[in-house]
Structure formats: C-alpha cells, structure tokens
Design brief:
single chain; two-stranded parallel ribbon; two-stranded antiparallel sheet; 6 helices; 8% strand
Length: 173
C-alpha cells in the first residue's frame, strides 16, 4: 500500500512538472502570446556572454528584478527534480536544470524571440539550486510527508498560476 501511494505521489509530481515546463516554455519562448504570428515580428536576436551586462542593465543600472524573477521561476524545477529523484546526486539534479535553461537561451536565439543572456542562465541555474536546497530543508522538517505536502502546495500554486494566466489571456482578447 505504501509503495502504491509513493507511485501515485511521483505521478502527480511528474504531471505537475510537465505543466510547469509547458507554462515556462510559453512564458520564455512564446512571451505569453496567444497569436504566434506576432512572435515573427519580434526579430530580437542577441547574445550576451558577460554576466550582469546587456539585458540586465537598464538606464545604466543592473535591473535586479529581472535577475530575481529568473531565479524565482526556476526554483520549482529544483523542487520537482528533488521530489522525483530524491536519491540522485546534487550534480545530477543541477545538470538538467542547467541544460533546460541553456536550451531556452539557444531556442530564443534560433527563433529570434529574445536575448540569449549568460545572466539568465546563471540566474535560472541558481534558482534550481535554491529549489534543491528548499526540498532538502523540507525533507528534514517534514520527513516522509514531504512529497505529499509539497504536491498539495504545488497543485494549489499551479491552479492559481493557470487561473491567473487564463485571466490575462481573457483580458487581452
């Protein structure tokens, strides 16, 4: 019975991860557009390989809010990976986070829908690492109930985000 519950919890987590990645892709690559034709007009293709320069600088100052948002948006990725693969090493959790972030940066460049920026890559990876750390702390505090509790919180958060995005879409139609 306990093994069946763990499998169910893992399946819920995988489902939440899929929804998270779909929303993340829509935000990063499709810029929350419902009309993909508008993306072809964007034609923004640049690469910044200097950390905290380029797109993170607005009016001569580092735009901290953009960096914080890049960190925050990848925290769930680290949590989900830790929930699905609790026994793999730290590096094996960080590598997919880094790889997915790198993939987004490359795809933004290829499709000319955004600036490919090392600062984003670093911030996204840091966010995933924070998520891994958050899961470790939760595991120490919550013990065997960690995945169940985090899944409930993630379900509520996912429902709220999807509802908010649906409202944004409806308001802009």
């Amino acid at each position: 019975m306990k093994e069946k519950r763990k499998t169910g919890e893992r399946n819920v987590t995988i489902g939440l991860l899929i929804v998270y990645l779909a929303v993340l892709t829509w935000i990063i690559l499709f810029k929350m557009e419902t009309d993909i034709r508008l993306l072809s007009q964007m034609n923004l293709r640049s690469i910044n390989l200097i950390p905290f320069a380029g797109s993170a600088i607005v009016n001569g100052k580092v735009e901290v809010s953009e960096i914080i948002l890049n960190i925050a948006v990848f925290v769930p990725f680290g949590i989900y990976l830790s929930m699905i693969f609790p026994d793999i090493s730290f590096i094996m959790k960080v590598l997919p986070i880094f790889a997915v972030s790198l993939m987004y940066e490359i795809l933004q460049y290829c499709f000319a829908v955004g600036a490919s920026d090392i600062t984003d890559l670093l911030g996204n990876t840091l966010g995933g690492i924070i998520g891994i750390g958050f899961f470790l702390i939760c595991s120490k505090v919550l013990g065997g109930k960690t995945v169940r509790i985090l899944n409930i919180l993630a379900l509520l958060g996912t429902a709220a985000v999807v509802a908010f995005l649906a409202l944004l879409i409806a308001a802009n139609m």
